[in-house]
Amino acid sequence: MQLNNNKILITGGGSGIGLGLSERFLNEGNTVIICGRRADVLAEVKAQYPAVITFTCDLELESGRMALYEWVRAEHNDLNVLINNAGVQKWVDVADDHFYENAKQEIAINIEAPLHLIFLFLKLNSLTTIINVSSGLSYVPLVKVPVYSATKSFMRSFTTSIQKTLAARNIEVIEMIPPALNTDLGGKGLHDAYPPVSEFIDSIFQQLKNGDNKLTFGMSAMMAKASADDLQNVFNRMNP
Ligand SMILES: NC(=O)c1ccc[n+]([C@@H]2O[C@H](COP(=O)([O-])OP(=O)(O)OC[C@H]3O[C@@H](n4cnc5c(N)ncnc54)[C@H](OP(=O)(O)O)[C@@H]3O)[C@@H](O)[C@H]2O)c1
């Protein structure tokens, strides 16, 4: 993908990996639009980076996704890059009282929202690039986040399919596969021991410059190349 002069929507661009992407794409000379549920978080980013454009919405809801798309179509119909980054991770057990309720929300945000947004944003003639954020847990599940891990396997599989089908329309589809990184995903503190987002972003941008369409880092780079036996060993280590 060309790395400057794009107009890019980054869902969940106000924090964590999304914020790292926002900062870097702004520095590279792009117009960046970010969205999320927390207006105060978006306002803080806007205060630091006045050029950033913000939109508050809840992507769990079909109405939230429609509102985002209608606003982009009306105000930014030259948008050419969609980055499906927003996601949630829930530490749940299938026997928990609120398991099904939590699972539905996780599936709506991690799967339904990116699929719906892709369907909608393909209607923009300007669209050239879609980036979907999956996870190293798409290769090997962490059993404490069983629905999350499965949503990311879904996104890996779906992204691989549309990489092929959308090539016919000259739309590039890229899968970004972060390993565990230090963000607030799943709740504050859970990811403190992991590498900083900045190291991941540096590596991702180098891979984008190289024209790669499966972007990995650290543990996810290892898992992308691992044999079935290696993956079984990782599973055993991660889930003692
Ligand atoms: N950090 C890791 O270890 C890691 C590893 C692999 C993959 N990932 C993936 O990377 C992506 C970004 O996660 P992160 O680590 O940067 O965590 P994060 O800081 O919690 O970021 C998640 C972002 O998604 C937004 N979001 C969540 N639900 C939303 C909703 N219903 N509507 C609109 N926006 C919503 C959040 O904003 P609001 O809360 O304001 O809505 C937030 O900005 C996720 O897809 C995650 O699965 C992360």
CATH topology: Rossmann fold
Largest sheet: 7 strands, parallel
Which residues form runs of ≥5 with pLDDT under 50?
none
Order of helix and strand elements from N to C terminus? EHEHEHEHEHEHEHH
Supply the helix-strand structural class. Answer: alpha/beta
**Integer-rounded radius of gyration:** 17 Å
Number of domains: 1
Question: What oligomeric arrangement do these chains adopt?
Answer: single chain
- Helix tally? 8
Ends distance: 40 Å
- Overall CATH class: Alpha Beta
Strand order, largest beta sheet: 3-2-1-4-5-6-7
In the CATH hierarchy, the architecture is 3-Layer(aba) Sandwich
Beta-strand portion reads 5-15%
How does this model look, in words?
The chain has 240 residues and is of the alpha/beta class. The chain has one domain: Rossmann fold (3-Layer(aba) Sandwich). 47% of the residues lie in helices and 13% in strands. Helix 4 (99-121) packs parallel to helix 5. The protein binds NADP nicotinamide-adenine-dinucleotide phosphate.
